[in-house]
Each structure stands twice: as C-alpha cells, then as structure tokens.
Design a protein that fits this description.
With 154 residues, the chain is mainly alpha-helical. It has six helices and two strands; from the N terminus they run H-H-H-E-E-H-H-H. The chain is elongated. One of its GO terms (cellular component) is cytosol.
Length: 154
C-alpha cells in the first residue's frame, strides 16, 4: 500500500524555511527532504499559487515564506496540496448489487467519513506556529547548533 507523505514533507520544508532569514534554494530544500529539486519546485509552485510562499530568481534567490505561521493551519496546507485522500482504505465494489457488500460499504463509509471529519477538524486546529514551537522545544532539549544538517540528526 502506497503512503502519501506530501503533507508531512511540505510541513517539514515550511518549518525549515521559517528558520532561515534568507531565501532557500530548491536544492537546499531537496537536501533536507532527500528528494529531487524538481519535486520541491513542483510542490512549492502550488504553495506559491496559494500565497504561502514566494520565489525570487537569480543570485541570492530562492523560496521564502509569504505567510504568518500563526494564521496558517495544517488544513490550509492540506487544501493547497489538492486535498489528497486521507485514508488508504476503501470499499470493495466488485459486486454493487450484492446486499452484503452494500451493508458492509454503508457501515465502512460512515466510519470513514467520521474519521476524515475528525482528522480535518484537528488539522484546522494546528497552526504552523504550533509546529515551529514544538520544533524549537525539541531543538533546545537537544542542544543543537543552528544548521540544516543538525535538524536532521538522530
């Protein structure tokens, strides 16, 4: 089963960006995410379209935050990613006329909808500022120096 980790990855990138007082290149962000800069540019382009980040070309250019961390929630970023499926599970649909399958799917659909509503509600309660505060607490407890590489230590 394939897991979609785009939300986690984008939040990771945004927190790194919040820590730097200068633009971060796609290459720098790709290093932090262990991915290709093209993937970063594609994701960041969508966030730019929603007004969460901005980009500058040329020497000294790169990506910067364009939003207030207190005003942006996980749900906002989730929506900016196109609201991908939250649950990997789904119903069997091979025999739609079967009343057993209908009963099972009805019960599962209700549970899936409740779970998604609860998850989206929680996403709406967590801001990027809250994630940044948690990161800063962990950072202080670790006693790390302030470099990108140190944020990824064990």
């Amino acid at each position: 089963m394939k897991h979609d980790s785009r939300l986690s990855g984008v939040l990771h990138v945004l927190l790194h960006m919040a820590e730097f007082d200068r633009p971060m290149t796609s290459e720098m962000l790709a290093m932090a995410m262990s991915t290709n800069p093209v993937v970063i540019r594609r994701i960041m382009g969508g966030l730019r379209d929603e007004g969460y980040v901005k980009s500058e070309k040329g020497h000294g250019g790169g990506w910067t935050l364009a939003c207030d961390l207190d005003a942006v929630t996980l749900r906002d970023i989730y929506a900016a990613l196109g609201s991908p499926d939250l649950l990997a599970m789904s119903n069997r649909t091979e025999m739609p006329g079967c009343i057993v399958e209908q009963a099972v799917n009805s019960a599962l659909n209700e549970a899936f909808q409740e779970a998604e509503a609860l998850l989206l509600k929680r996403f709406g309660e967590v801001t990027l500022a809250m994630l940044a505060a948690d990161f800063h607490q962990r950072y202080l407890e670790r006693g790390s120096t302030h470099t990108l590489e140190d944020h990824h230590g064990s």
